[in-house]
Write a structure and sequence with these properties.
It is found in: Membrane. GO terms for molecular function: ABC-type transporter activity; ATP binding; ATP hydrolysis activity; GTP binding. The protein has about 1500 residues and is of the alpha/beta class. It has 4 domains: about 190 residues, no CATH class; about 650 residues, ABC transporter type 1, transmembrane domain (ABC transporter transmembrane region fold, Up-down Bundle), CATH 1.20.1560; about 240 residues, P-loop containing nucleotide triphosphate hydrolases (Rossmann fold, 3-Layer(aba) Sandwich), CATH 3.40.50.300; about 260 residues, Rossmann fold. The chain is built from 52 helices and 25 strands. The strands form 7 sheets. The chain has a 6-stranded mixed beta sheet, with helices on both faces. Strands 17-22-23-14-24-25 form a 6-stranded mixed beta sheet. Helix 10 packs across helix 14, helix 12 runs antiparallel to helix 14 and helix 36 packs antiparallel against helix 41.
């Protein structure tokens, strides 16, 4: 019997003996000396090899400039030296007793190195190297000492004890290592050359670069201050950590540009550019997968011990397995968080790189939309826009494609970067798991592997379908965003015409198609995610079936629950991998789109440097356009005034843009200077201050600036603005009048240093008086001396002063003459210029202007220079506080009401109960043998029930997914409908406070969030929340004492998560807010790309501006992702502690192995559940932020509420109202918003039916505001406006606007056809529409043709003729004629003409006036005009100034009174002619 006991104890004693031998070997200290020897060799080798290389680099490379140097406190190094001295003393004591001298010598080496490092400068390289050697050797010795002291304790029955000196040694050595871990790093960032120093904007270092290694790899403590601040208050961008220097956007663009030189596609270019980052991700992913199953391995051995604690085959002490329940998950967490830290950073880097590449390509490409002009053949071949629900709209502009690339595709591609971690970790994890399972189950595990291999293609099959469906979704999304962008830019016009229902219907039609495809995509996505559950559970089921049916091996608790734990881990891996596969499948389509954009877009032609000249040049808008300028040979005179004139649509703008290289040069030669200031016909302004728009990133010169303001007659205008020249101009200059925008655009060109100015019809938006002042000050002074001016205009004064005159007619240059005798030249051209001049010669005072024209200095900021980076317009207002949790309920109620929301909640609970029942039944199964000691009942009964449980869970999971997906789809549809209605019906004053980029962000990324991810995050949050509560309850029911520690650590975990959530939602808001400027920058650049590229080096400035905006977005995005790491590592710590506590309680309170296995399985799974729950709750709150942003927009107060409209409808307005057209304005006072000052004061007018009334005045006098007041587009603070005796405030808004015809200052056309632009509601007969088009003489090629018999269309425009977005296949003047046709279709009794002839030549103006007289007989016409020739035959003229009526009367009465009207006539220079017309 004694011999049997001795043999039984042999394994444990054998291992004890082996470990004693190994400890004795380490105790000798030879390995310690070996570490010292390696350290000395390393120092010597580095010194010998580095010295020649350093000398070579110093001689061959440019000097480096230190940017920032952060010194390290000597306290850390002194602490290490003290600790090493203590360790030397303790080892000497041990050495004197044991005769070992190697250990004291090894630690003394550390002590000496620590002292020697103080002999060098704090930031010197040698001091750093010595410090590294101290840390490395100390770490090695600590590992050796810990192994020697602690390893023997891991054997059951070991009697080894650690002495107090041994503990002190470990503490002192651990202190040295710990000090190294918590020591902040110092950074010495350097630039390549001295010149690079000027490009610095932020010398400070990011905390990420200077934090300690412990903080960087383990605790992420450098984010703690951010979390604490965010927990108690709302965060701003300044609260976030700085962007690390190695993530600077400009550096990213340079890196990928080098790779792009080899011509690779986007994905491969990104992979090659960021190969180091990807390698780090792969390394951490492999480490994560290798330690993934440490907890499962520990649980298996702990259960084996608890199943038979007296077994002599067990050698390792259960305390080791309990400790591994903590250290295993924590090691896995450290590796996993580092891999995700690298992966999310790569995600941000990819997105920033793609955005910059798209922008760079856009700056270099040539597109029709850059010039806003027409490509006839291409447009005529565009698909019929009545089929706009179809997926592809080939006529979509580059700007729209860019919007989709920026808002969707860049995000999709960046999300696919998770593939590197997910694929690597899944493969390695699967290999480890299969090996482990084979050790547990034997050959039945191979059956499970086979089943998994068979099911593996399913995600790929579904993902291919999903990728295809995503492409279809994106086509519909592109079309929706393009139409929204088009409508938003023209929303004032839409409101004035009461066309809001048309906009809503068109968008809803596209949205229905998009949502049909979204539903198919989401169902496919659901199938992809379901395969994750299916593969792991079915493969485990196959293993158990094979084990039970084909072997005699009973299913024991260690085997069963370890297999379940492994399968659970595999399941989470596959679920994550399937999610990533979904993103990759979407990214595949996005990559194709990005590659197509980068490869298909034609490069802008760069003409040779030289004087502005065309030699035998044939130019057209694109290769497919038939309209062109043929064989043009023009050499513009240098340092002189060159005037280009011609009829509407003759090709004048094409000529200017051809000089800039914005068109297609078919043959010939074009030369142009490198630095040109271009002013387009439609003013382009940035959403920033007036001053910044003028200075345009040049050095600020106060004297020059004031001169330019005076020349452009802006001094008085700026003095009336609230902040002077620092006033924000708004989106596309929405805060300014048309004339102010055009003069600021001109001022930008004048302020520039460009030697050549291309000015395209700059006087079209100015009144006569302002035109006179601007022309005299700019072109008849020395302001433009020595500069080459090419001016497109019909202005007679410019023709008189021209040194060179060019006439363009029908695509050919009919006259190109130059003569020193300007008067004779003018006479010659007056007869030959077909378009004629719109005004005659302006009065001219050569050098000394009248006293009113003397230059006045505008009060400006005293700053002498402008900060290049401080150029953004007003930022979006950031919401404060957390997202209300009540929004979850509001969102779920959108699923289809309370019944559908309740069904979703119940299904989520049933699914989790079914999931818990799987492990619960395993517990019952493995405990079945307890009834009869060593005999097992029939395993098949338990197997069948287990199979049914698994099948039931899968079916319930599918049903739950379907319920949530259907509900989320319904909620998305409802929210988009509400959003469209709210935005379209919002008042104009609301649009002045938001940018179009902000609105599009609601329809773009925020809508995408509701379409694609919000529902999934809600479902997963509910699943994990219910799973957490059920797991906690099940563990506590078996081990009640577990409730106390579990509750404590769960409380800590959730408190940490709550702090994180509060900070994270603030950071997320900053991320969203900082993306809007990027979106707006793309839109602004697209609109003004010709202006930007014309000026030398300005494209580089705008690229740099984008980099700065992206840097701010990256700063917020990286902080958002990194905060997740902060909370995850702490949640993992709490979860690992809970698992170890459960293991200890199971060990100390031994019970049934089946129940303990059930408890441990849930305890280990609890760690992942807690972490996932916190993450899901945060992600849900983050995505709810998008829902909240849309929800807030749906609550915008409309111009007229439905209740008000219904109330006004009861006033019984006659159906034919107005029948006469009498307009009465009584003591009218109006303002733009209720909280602003009046802009119209005491206006009185009584317009009789059929009377024609002209309203004139200088720019900004309130002319247009009076017209808008008649449309109730302003806030009437006092007085009345009556039409046929009816107060317009008593008329429903849409009814009022449908009753009034409007010809706006800038007619906007929408993509579609002629009929949809004239009569979107099909209220007019087709033949009548065709008659209107014929009457207006609009031809198909956009040119008004005329022969000897009068105006006869050459090729008549049909009602089904395609019209491009913005009407870019028509010239500006032709669009105005289209506006007249719209008014003719309405046949209104009241017509408002708001400078309707501003953009047309004299001939077209005369034609339009003839049409007005003939087609609007009996209608009351109120014409806002600045061309006095147009209105001299009107019945009455009202002269306005500063919002008041200056004078009113017939033209002859005002002429006799010699007041303001007479003064304006005098300034036209054609006073005698106009006086005759009046009389």
């Amino acid at each position: 019997m004694q011999l049997f006991i001795e043999k039984a104890r042999l394994p444990r004693e054998l291992w004890q003996h082996r470990l004693e031998i190994f400890s004795g070997f380490l105790r000798q200290g030879n390995v310690h000396l070996l570490l010292v020897a390696f350290s000395l060799i390393s120092l010597a080798a580095e010194y010998l090899l580095r010295t020649p290389w350093t000398l070579y680099c110093a001689a061959s490379k440019a000097p480096k400039i230190p940017v920032s140097q952060l010194s390290v406190s000597p306290a850390y190094a002194i602490g290490q030296s003290v600790a090493s001295a203590v360790a030397v003393s303790l080892l000497l004591i041990c050495g004197l007793h044991g005769g070992v001298w190697q250990k004291p010598v090894s630690v003394a080496y550390i002590f000496i190195l620590g002292l020697v490092q103080f002999a060098f400068r704090p930031l010197s390289g040698l001091r750093t190297k010595f410090n590294h050697q101290v840390n490395q050797v100390a770490l090695g010795i600590l590992i050796l000492e810990a192994t020697e002291q602690l390893l023997p304790l891991g054997i059951i029955g070991s009697h080894v004890e650690i002495s107090s000196i041994g503990i002190a040694k470990l503490i002192s050595l651990a202190y040295i290592v710990l000090t190294a871990l918590i020591t902040p790093r110092f950074v010495m960032k350097q630039l390549g050359t001295v010149e690079d120093a000027s490009t610095l904007t932020k010398p400070e270092s990011s905390p990420e670069e200077t934090c300690s290694w412990f903080s960087y790899y383990l605790s992420y403590g450098w984010l703690t201050n951010l979390i604490l601040r965010g927990a108690f208050r709302d965060l701003s961008l300044d609260d976030l950590p700085s962007l690390p220097s190695y993530d600077a956007p400009a550096r990213l663009l340079k890196r990928i540009s080098v790779v792009r030189l080899k011509g690779s596609r986007t994905f491969y270019s990104l992979c090659k550019t960021f190969r180091c980052e990807i390698s780090a991700i792969l390394s951490w992913a492999v480490l994560t997968a290798m330690v993934e199953y440490v907890a499962a391995f520990a649980m298996f051995n702990l259960l084996a011990y608890l199943e038979n604690p007296n077994s002599t085959a067990l050698v390792v002490h259960p305390g080791v397995w309990i400790s591994l329940l903590f250290f295993g998950p924590m090691t896995r967490s450290v590796c996993y968080q580092q891999s995700i830290f690298k992966s999310t950073r790569l995600m941000v880097l990819w997105r920033a790189t793609i955005l910059q590449e798209i922008y760079q390509k856009m700056l270099r490409s040539r597109g029709e939309e850059s010039a806003h002009m027409w490509d006839e053949d291409h447009r005529s071949g565009a698909p019929n826009m009545s089929q706009e629900e179809e997926p592809i709209d080939s006529s979509m502009s580059n700007s729209v494609k860019t919007e989709s690339l920026v808002s969707y595709d860049a995000d999709m591609i960046s999300n696919s970067s998770d593939l590197f971690y997910a694929l690597t970790a899944s493969l390695v994890s699967t290999a480890v798991a299969m090996t482990f399972l084979y050790q547990l189950l034997g050959w039945p595990s191979l059956v499970g592997i086979g089943v998994m291999a068979v099911l593996t293609p399913l995600p790929a099959i579904f993902s291919q379908r999903m990728s295809r469906l995503h492409g279809y979704v994106m086509e519909a999304t592109d079309l929706r965003l393009s139409r929204l962008s088009e409508y938003l830019h023209a929303l004032p016009t839409i409101k004035y015409f009461a066309w809001e229902p048309m906009v809503v219907d068109n968008i809803d039609t596209i949205r229905r198609t998009e949502q049909q495809r979204i539903w198919k995509r989401n169902v496919t996505s659901m199938l992809v995610s379901m395969t994750g559950d299916l593969m792991s559970l079915v493969s485990l089921l196959a293993m158990f079936v094979s084990l039970v049916l084909f072997t005699n091996t009973p299913l024991r608790a260690p085997m069963a629950f370890t297999s379940v734990a492994i399968t659970e881990t595999l399941r989470s891996q596959f679920v994550w991998l399937c999610k990533v596969i979904q993103w990759v499948s979407q990214a595949r389509g996005s990559l194709i789109r990005v590659d197509s954009f980068l490869e298909a877009t034609a490069e802008r032609q760069r003409h040779p440097h030289g004087p502005p000249e065309l030699r035998d040049a044939t130019v057209r808008w694109s290769e497919h356009s038939s309209f062109m300028l043929r064989d043009v040979s023009v050499s513009f005179r240098l340092a002189a005034l060159n005037v280009v004139s011609g009829g509407t649509g003759s090709g004048k703008s094409l000529l200017l843009l051809s000089l800039l290289g914005e068109t297609n040069l078919a043959n010939g030669l074009v030369t142009c200077p490198d630095d040109v200031a271009y002013v387009p016909q439609t003013a382009w302004l940035q959403n920033t201050s007036v001053r910044q728009n003028i200075v345009f990133y040049r050095d600020f010169d106060q004297e020059r600036y004031n001169s330019v303001l005076h020349a452009c007659d802006l001094s008085d205008d700026l003095s009336r603005l609230p902040l002077g020249d620092l006033t924000q101009v708004g989106e596309r200059g929405s805060a300014l009048s048309g004339g102010q925008k055009q003069r600021i655009s001109l001022a930008r060109a004048l302020y520039s240093s460009a030697s050549t100015l291309l000015l395209d019809d700059i006087f079209s938006a100015l009144d006569t008086h302002t035109t006179s002042r601007v022309y005299n000050r700019c072109f008849r002074t020395k302001l433009l001396a020595g500069r080459t001016i090419i001016l497109v205009t019909h202005l007679a004064a410019a023709i008189e002063d021209a040194d060179l005159l060019v006439s363009v007619d029908g695509g050919t240059v009919s006259v190109a003459s130059q003569n020193c005798d300007k008067q004779s030249l003018d006479r010659e051209l007056r007869g030959s210029l077909k378009g004629g001049a719109t005004e005659t010669v302006l009065s001219y005072t050569p050098s000394n202007e009248s006293s009113e024209d003397t230059e006045t200095e505008v009060p400006t900021d005293s700053t002498s220079t402008l900060n290049l980076w401080d150029v953004d317009g007003p930022e979006e207002k950031q919401a404060s506080g957390r997202v209300p949790r009540l929004l979850i309920l509001k969102y779920m109620l959108l699923f289809g009401g309370a019944a559908h929301a309740s069904l979703a909640l119940c299904s989520a609970l049933v699914v989790q109960l079914a999931y818990l029942s799987i492990t619960l039944w395993l517990s019952v199964w493995t405990n079945a043998r307890d009834d009869k000691a060593d005999q097992f009942p029939d395993q098949r009964f338990y197997l069948y029930i287990y199979t049914g449980t698994v099948a039931g869970f899968i079916l319930l999971q599918f049903s739950n997914n379907f319920i949530f997906q259907r509900g989320g789809w319904h909620a998305s549809r409802t929210m988009h409908q509400r959003l469209v209605n709210a935005v379209v019906k919002a008042p104009n004053s609301w649009f002045s406070s938001v940018s179009i980029g902000q609105i599009l962000s609601r329809f773009g990324p925020d809508t995408q969030s509701i379409d694609a991810v919000l529902t999934d995050w809600l479902r997963m949050t509910l699943d994990n929340g219910l799973r957490f509560m059920l797991r906690l309850a099940s563990i506590a029911s078996i081990m009640p004492i577990f409730a106390l520690p579990a509750g404590f650590f769960c409380l800590i975990g959730f408190a940490t998560g709550e702090m994180y959530s509060r900070a994270e939602i603030s950071v997320k808001r900053i991320v969203s807010i900082k993306f809007a400027p990027i979106f707006s920058h793309f839109n602004e650049t697209t609109a003004g790309i010709a202006v930007i590229r014309a000026q030398q080096s300005m494209d580089g400035v705008f690229q740099q501006l984008l980099a700065e905006k992206i840097a701010q977005h990256m700063r917020a995005a990286e902080a958002q992702f990194n905060c997740n790491r902060w909370v995850s590592i702490r949640s993992d710590f709490c979860a690992a502690t809970i698992a170890a506590t459960a293991g200890y309680i199971a060990y100390s309170k031994s019970g049934s192995a089946g129940l303990v296995g059930f408890s441990l399985t849930n305890a280990i799974g609890l760690s992942q559940t807690i972490l996932t729950l916190i993450r899901n709750m945060n992600e849900l709150e983050v995505e709810l932020n998008s829902f909240q942003r849309i929800h807030d927009y749906t609550k915008i107060e409309p111009e007229e509420t439905a209740e008000t409209e219904a109330l006004l409808a009861k006033n019984k307005i006659p159906a034919a109202w107005p029948t006469c057209g009498r307009v009465e304005i009584r003591n009218l006072r109006a303002r733009y918003a209720s909280d602003q000052e009046d802009v119209l004061q005491d206006i009185n007018l009584d317009a009789k039916p059929g009377e024609r009334i002209a309203i004139i005045g200088r720019t900004g006098s309130g002319k247009s505001t009076l017209g808008l007041s008649m449309l109730r587009s302003t806030h009437i603070s006092a007085g009345q406006i009556l039409i046929d005796g009816v107060d317009i405030t008593k008329v429903p808004l849409r009814r009022l606007r449908k009753a009034i015809g409007l010809i706006p200052q800038e007619t906007v056309l929408f993509s579609g056809n002629a009929q949809s632009n004239l009569d979107p509601f099909s209220e007019v007969d087709h033949s009548e529409l065709q008659s209107v088009l014929q009457t207006c003489s609009l031809s198909h090629d956009g040119v008004i043709m005329e022969n000897s018999d009068g105006a006869v269309p050459k090729t008549q425009l049909a009602t089904d003729t395609p019209i491009a977005s913005g009407g870019t296949n028509f010239s500006s003047g032709q669009r105005q004629i289209f506006g007249l046709a719209r008014a003719m279709c309405r046949r209104s009794k009241v017509i408002i003409m708001d400078e309707a002839t501003a953009s047309v030549d004299h001939e077209t103006d005369a034609r339009m006036q003839t049409l007005v007289r003939s087609e609007f007989v009996g209608s009351t016409i109120i014409a806002i005009a600045h061309r006095l020739r147009t209105v001299v035959d009107y019945d009455r003229v009202i002269v306005m100034g500063e919002g008041k009526v200056v004078e009113m009367g017939t033209p002859s009465e005002l002429l006799k009174s010699k007041g303001a009207f007479w003064e304006m006539l005098k300034h036209t220079g054609e006073y005698d002619e106009l006086r005759k017309l009046i009389k």
